[in-house]
Amino acid sequence: MATKTIKGIRTEKVDVTSSGDTWNLHKNATIVSIDFGFFGALTANNNTFNIDGDIFAVYGVFGQGPRMTVNVGHSGLLQGSAGIIMAGTDRLDVDVDGQILGAQYGIQSVAARTTVDVGRNGTIEGMYGIYAMGTTRFSADIDGEVIGTQYGIVAAAATSRVTVGGHGEVDGAQYGVYFAGSGGGRLVNHGSIASAGGIGANFVQPGAKVYNDGEITGMYGISAVGKGTIVNDEHGAIIGTYGILASSTGGQSFKIVNHGTIIAPETQFAIVAGDGNDRIISDGRMVGNVVLGSGNDVLNLLHGSAKGDFFGNTGDDTLITDKASHKLIENAGEGIDTVKSTVDYKLSPEVERLILLGGKDIDGTGNATANTLRGNSGDNILKGLAGADELFGNKGNDKLYGGGDGDIFHFSSGDGKDKVMDLAIGVDDVDLSGWNAINTFTQLLNHAKNDGNGNVVIKAGDDSLTIMHLEKGDLDMNDFIF
Fold first, then answer.
1. What string of H, E and C letters represents the secondary structure of 5-37?
2. pTM of the model
């Protein structure tokens, strides 16, 4: 194991045939070559190259042996068609605090394992900034700049991880970061990832894992397939014509959590989900439409700000909200859809179910189709409107309006003091199967009495059900379910 130092100006390549050596290019040294700066033979293995000077060559450092380490110091410069080429099969480790300026590749590696660290003063440029073709493991920690005129970083390994630090920047005209490995890929971004005309972060295999509290921008901010987890934290921003495109497939799903900001033009798309059972949680800010796919999806907007339309599509979808303006857009035959709300809420067309959350006194209204409306523990007014509706007041002192068609009013033990406001004899039903104190029509009559105002009150213990505008003698056993 020897240490060898290059000084002065050299006008031909340095041939490296030995193994285990350390090669130093002095900070005042320069290599100018028509082909290679350092050329590692097939037999040269596990050498370290410390570049503190300048290399002007087609290929700055070229290795063919199994292992190679390259450290580009603060004063180091590699400029040519490619800065570093690793043709060896095992491992490449690169640390960059200087500059690698490649017309084609900043770094290209076919090694099974490649690691790249770019310090705050480091820069890598090329048509492909970093192109890691190895199939086993790739990791990059970027706190400087990686700029690709086409691709910023390409990661093909089964296990690929890219971390962009708070001072880091990755740019690519087509792709900022492109994950092609079978394991999906893991991206942690505290800095900036950008693609002016393409995709900020692209995952072409299932298994994407993204944590962002920096900025990701592109025509598509993030595009991923199959399944995965995407977390945009409080200080994170994802910006694009499509903020997030999560193309899940049947049997696979995405979980998307937004505590920060996702922005698309208002007529475009903050999030587009796929065919899996996807879950989207946003207590941050979203601008742009949200499109759910054909799965049974959940869109939770509690405590968040969202400006746009929310398209449910097929599947049994659920919207959870604390704003009456948040509406699911559904068409007939697109599943059994549900809204869960902490505020007064009216269902949009073709949404079937409404569940009121919390303990506040809030009201719920259905639509023209058959609905199921469920109150919370407060005092609720539920209105079914047209359609054959089912109404559950639950706890609290509730008022239940069925509306037109044959409705079912449900009352159970512990539901408090409810009122059925518009029971139509022979059309509607009252379901008392959950009221333990009353199991037959005879028991019902024993617990019923008129209130003197044209209404009948059925009372057992602390629970009572008042049927408005009917008296005890008007009751028919065929209108009750026990």
1. EECCEECCCEEECCCCCEEEECCCCEEECCCEE
2. 0.94
